[in-house]
Amino acid sequence: MFWLIAGLVLGAAIFWLATASKVKLTWYEWVLGVLGIILILFAIQNFGASQVALEAKAGNLLLLVFGLPGLILAVVAGVLAFLRGKKEAA
Amino acid sequence: MPENLTRREFIGELGKLGAAAAVVPMVAGGETMDTKPFDLGRPNWIKELDEPLTEVDWQQVARYNERHTTRRGFNLYVEQERIDQLGELSSELLSDNLKNDVPGYTLKDRALQRAARGGGASRQFFLDPEKVQGPDTWGVPKWEGTPEEASQLVSAAMRHMGAATVGFVELQTETTEKFIYSVDPDGKELRIEDVDMPEETEEYRVIPKKARYAIVYTVQMSEETMARCPTVLGSLTTSLTYTRSQNIQERAQVFLNGLGYMGLAESSTNALGISPALGVYAGLGELSRYNRLLTPEYGPMVRVFKLLTDLPLAPTKPIDAGLYEFCHKCKKCAEACPGKAISFDEEPSWETKGGWNNPGHRAWFEDSVLCRFYQRTYTGTNCGLCFSACPFATKNLASFNRVRNWMAATVPAFDATFKSMDDLLYTNFPLEFGKPQKDCEEWWTLNLPDYGIDTVQTVRTTDNS
Known about the structure:
The complex is a heterodimer. Chain A has helices spanning 2-20, 27-52, 56-89. Helix content of chain A is 88%, strand content 0%. Chain B is built from 16 helices and 11 strands.
């Protein structure tokens, strides 16, 4: 169920960004953002599955190792788009 | 179908549809039931090979006497007086640990391990169990089909009885037949003769030459329980797997008899033939650094068993899932072995460590005497740390483990990196050498699945679509 909801939310967000959003993302912002989201999802899956597998330490580390870079990439993509949008508006 | 049909036309059209429906299943997959090759449902990155990666010099291989293993023939390598001392040490250790409530050795651990070893109705036969009904009693001819169909049939049946994976080896006189022991654990000679029926006397057992087909199967062990070794509690999963295998074995014999064929099996633990060798040739896994079978589905968390039949079976091929290659770089089992019994050599060797190894293949031979010494002196029971330390002894629920499995098979350059990551993720620090990796008392509070195993954790697909 988690993955169904995550897929729906992500799909809606990407659709909105690609069609309705005022800010048009550049190709490298798309690459950074998608890569970041993939890493975050990978980290979440590993964290959850490791808890089920009774490997909490592995889960925490995998969340950190993959989740943190993923978060940084996604934030960088967002900030770049935001700053560019602000600049274009000015 | 056109509209406004007469009744006659309607029935005619139905006939065409029926004929088409009968043909479609046979051609849709490009193959009929008769020609469909039997496979274990593995992903395509597990490559099938004509010969296993473990090199074998058949001229050097001879049928091995099981009583030369350290399991039965410890006194061939160590003086009886020393063995007696070790026995006393082992008993004292078990007794002291029991009385002092040492985690993993407490009364509840001991009771459970006894139950796993001795409880239930597990029996072992070399010959078929008596009074089995079959085609003769039911008044029908024995089952006939292609070897592929037979392999599918036997695999389906044995999987349902509790086997994890099932493979097949067609024994060849100059090669794979040499994996059958010359002498069984109880001292009875195993003779392979050109006779019609098997036979057992006080001195020997006769395997008819026509019983050419080895059914090799694994039974899954519990990672979570094995992580509590080396203790009585940790050894429970090994004991339970052996007793489960006896149930599977007897049922397999009854099944084969029911089809009208013989099923010759292990008369006692580790009887009949060399399990890891047959497992490698059946493609159930690869030979590992700890010199046992390492499987793509369950890593080291299996025990391997076998029986022989005259039912013609389609052999399964040896595999390359990158596991043997991974062992070159990994060495984690050797690092974890408190008895220093496992090789640290980069490459496997043709040189055996002692009479407990069967020469003629290139492997990381273990020092079984050191292994036994450690077990009897410090654990009082099975050790198993080499099994539980293996990076592939994971439950494969986390995607990272699945990526590692795929990378090991396809990009071996990252093997050392994955070993280092395994150290970081799954090894508890500070590492207490020779101690359980997980808390034994905690084990009793866990809500583990049946037998402590997750049967769908495998890389194999169970999707029938």
